[in-house]
Amino acid sequence: MKNSVLAGQEKKRIIAEIEGVVKNYDESAKIENIRKYSTAANEAVRRCLYLYLGKLYRENPDLREKILKLIKKLLWDDSEHVRGTAVYALGEIELTETELTYELYETALNDKYQAVKDAIIEVLQKKVEKDPVSTLQFARRFLYHSNPRIRRGIIHGIEPRGRTHPEDILPFLEEFQDDPDKKLRGTILYVLGEISYKKGCLEKVAAALKRWTNRELVFKALKEILEVHKRYEKFSAKSFKETKEYLEKEFGKI
User: Fold this and answer.
1) Contact assessment for residue 81 and residue 42, using Cβ atoms and an 8 Å cutoff
2) CA distance linking residue 31 with residue 135, whole number of Å
3) What is the CA angle 166-168-171, rounded to 5?
4) Cα distances (Å, whole numbers) of residue 47 to 54, 116, 156, 157
């Protein structure tokens, strides 16, 4: 039942109910139908909900504010399953620079349930691959957020762009090199390792690290990069031996 496909008539009925809730939505509106679909055991029902909310958002500018407010209400729901579905709905809409959109991402990144936080990171990772320019611009707004969990979530969210275009995210990482949060610095090391072993990436990472002033973190990053090349040697552009020789030529003995 989990992955069953919706029958045509059932899908039409669900879509009609979703559209009715959205068009008549206000702050006091009852949204039990939306909640019901958010927690459905059938994954196809949940998918229908968030995909159709995204479709309504894209095709009906006059409904966008209502949809954002509805998602906001879902993100404050007591059920983590409802909040998780709301995250995927958020992933289907455009990234905009409105304060409400910023607030929605902030709420999701700060969720107490790891599954909800993982969902918003997954959403950001998909967005940064499809639309890197606007996603990175949007992510920059969170760079100095007071909550380190949110800062860590943003770094994880933009990581996939670094695997193909490390030069796009290395400036973000550099700004965090002296961050007081130990876990965040650990996240930086993880990301540097993950973006270093693809073809043409090691050289860009090394060039960036030469400019960093936190030499202790740079040394740890070099150790992490070597460890990743050892672990992923079959998939790396350079062998572990080649990587070690290159890094020691550039930075000295590691």
Assistant:
1) no
2) 30
3) 95
4) 11, 16, 24, 21
Q: Report pLDDT for 97.
A: 77
Write the Ramachandran bin of 17: left for phi over 0, alpha for psi from -120 to 50, otherwise beta. Answer: alpha
Residue in the structure block whose two tokens are 């350079």: 238
Does 1.25.40.290 match the CATH number of domain 117-254?
A: yes
Q: Which two tokens stand for residue 151?
A: 């800062």
- pLDDT, tens only, 244-254: 999 999 999 98
**pTM of the complete model beyond 0.90:** no
- Cα(29)–Cα(183) distance, rounded to whole angstroms? 41
